[in-house]
Structure formats: C-alpha cells, structure tokens
Amino acid sequence: MANAASGMAVHDDCKLKFMELKAKRNYRFILFKIEQQQIVIDKLGEPNESYDDFTSSFPADECRYAVFDFDFTTEENCQKSKIFFIAWSPDSSKVRMKMVYASSKDRFKRELDGISFELQATDPSEMSLDIVKGRVF
C-alpha cells in the first residue's frame, strides 16, 4: 500500500481512459479522485460536453484531479487542442484531504503523458475559461 510520501497507487483505468481522451478523443474531460489509497476515475465527460459542464462537475468541498481536452483555433486558423491538468483543492475541503492530494499530484501527473498545462484551483474563478485561454495563447 502506498503512503503519502510515495504517492497513491494509480488504477489502470486512469491511464487507459487518459490515452483514449488523448488519442481517440473519446472524452472531453476526466475527473479523478483518491479512494481507498488509490487514484480512480470519478467522472468521464462526453466529447460534446462544454467547459461549463466540466467545471460544474467538481464537488464544492472535495479535492479532485482532472484533465480537459481544450480545442482552439490559432491565429493562422489551424484547429489545435491542448490537454490541461487541473488540481482542484477547494478551501472548504478537509486539511488531510488537501495534503494527500498535494503529495500525490506530481507522481500522478507523470503517469499521464501529454499534458500541456497545469492549473491549481481553490475556487471556480481560478480555472475560468478566460484563464485557460490565457495559458494557450
């Protein structure tokens, strides 16, 4: 069993579904949670779901990790996408939960190859669409 210093175990589905998001674009986003000493999938967002659907999926008082496949058009009119990793740690979540998520984040992120940007958010305004766009452009 992994301890907080070494990071949590990562369920195989997490990597598999992330690869499907990245390569096949089967999902718009994935929310992950820590449950029974391992990181597991909390929610899969369908390809047609919006950024608002994504941000409304976060619980108000529990931490989560998430990835979002952000589509955009460059100034040269090229369609592109970038994958964002978001560490959600609301102020209202328990201190122990915040510590466990913070200590496991980097190891988990290394398991997900292809992340372009990372955001850390304690309230929805810190991961607004404007902030995401600002990181891309």
TrEMBL record:
<comment type="similarity">
    <text>Belongs to the actin-binding proteins ADF family.</text>
</comment>
<protein>
    <recommendedName>
        <fullName>ADF-H domain-containing protein</fullName>
    </recommendedName>
</protein>
<dbReference type="InterPro" id="IPR002108">
    <property type="entry name" value="ADF-H"/>
</dbReference>
<feature type="domain" description="ADF-H">
    <location>
        <begin position="5"/>
        <end position="137"/>
    </location>
</feature>
<dbReference type="GO" id="GO:0015629">
    <property type="term" value="C:actin cytoskeleton"/>
</dbReference>
<dbReference type="GO" id="GO:0003779">
    <property type="term" value="F:actin binding"/>
</dbReference>
<dbReference type="GO" id="GO:0030042">
    <property type="term" value="P:actin filament depolymerization"/>
</dbReference>
<dbReference type="InterPro" id="IPR029006">
    <property type="entry name" value="ADF-H/Gelsolin-like_dom_sf"/>
</dbReference>
<dbReference type="InterPro" id="IPR017904">
    <property type="entry name" value="ADF/Cofilin"/>
</dbReference>
<keyword id="KW-0009">Actin-binding</keyword>
<dbReference type="Pfam" id="PF00241">
    <property type="entry name" value="Cofilin_ADF"/>
</dbReference>
